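Reopening this one. Same input as before:
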Amino acid sequence: MIEKSRLEILKSRDEQKMLELAKDEACEAEALFVLSQSANPDIRCNVAVNQSTPHHADELLADDQEISVRCGVARKIANRLTKHISEKQRAAALQVLKRLIADQEIRVRKVIAEEIKASDQVPKDIVLKLALDEASEVSCPVLEYSPLLEDEDLIGIIKGLIHSPALESIAKRANVSDVIAEKLIASMDANAITALLRNPNAQIREDALDRVLDAAETVESWHAPLIARPGLSVRAIKRICSFITENLMQEFAKRADIDEEMRDYITEKVTARLDAEDVHGSDQNAVADTIRDELLVHQKAGTLDADYFSQAADQEKHMNIWVGLALLVDIDHTIAHRIFAARSAKAIVALCWKAQMPMWLACKLQDVVGKIAQEDRLEPDQDGGYPLKDDELEWHFALFTEEDEQADDAEENTAEAG
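Same output, byte for byte:
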């Protein structure tokens, strides 16, 4: 039964009083159900967040046309599931929540993800569905914080993901096992690896760190996290010293675990590298320019094709391969070199796709030039074509070109300012 004064408010149609009634958690379930059908969205919003609103009203509001109403129900129900409640309450809440996590509006799913991200009371299938959401706003909170996601779950998620924010969120987890760290490094996602290096609780094995160091010289965003990385071996420190700048060297030498002998080594090696850098770079560029001139002849003759690159791979003419592919794609040869040095299967395949080469060549170059382990290689689809969609391939290619474009823009802006 609805209390008489509340019944009078409902009959009066006084929207201000009905709004106050919708906020009242002492209000009867029957009255709140009536209010849940109000034409006023503000009233429905307040009914949606009211803890006393009955289950059948929550079900009704979960399909409300107003996003703010659905968000209100989503936040309340998701929060309820993070607490210790009766089995009956849990079943009712799950019935509503499963409808809301299928909502087409990202904001609704994001609200749920934020509420349940750190809870161990939520059913795992709900967590997995949110973790696999295509919208990073939804998946990222769960991927970073959920205690229910185990290594096996994360490995499957990493394998199927292409967007950087999700991988980065996994790298930020409170505890990242060496297995997960290795999978993230194999993705060669620059942002994810940056986050991984910055995470003191990420367990990175020496061989996995070596893969990072193989590509680190050309990925400046990794340099600072590397010199701050705890537990570096002497071998890793020496490798890092081969490419960091003088400023970072000074920061490196300040580490508490660096002794005087190693400080002297850092100073000497970095200084020597800086002295030799211009000569080495000039020599390599001169060779690349010579090869490029030769390849231009092949290009004009129409023989800079898959057969040419396959033969070059057989003859271990790796520079011919990355200079030739760079020529076809119209990028600097150093970018193509960086892609192969990073040992990223997806990036190598994306470069071949961009150069309009067949997938069989991409397979061969993954093996011969990229030195990609068999289990990490991308294989052709059932028709012998590329296994990734065009937008995915474009994304992986852009990972290695955007940094150079930004540097070029900065240089042009500086020149214009001068």
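So the earlier flakiness isn't reproducible anymore. For the record, The longest helix spans residues 260-301.
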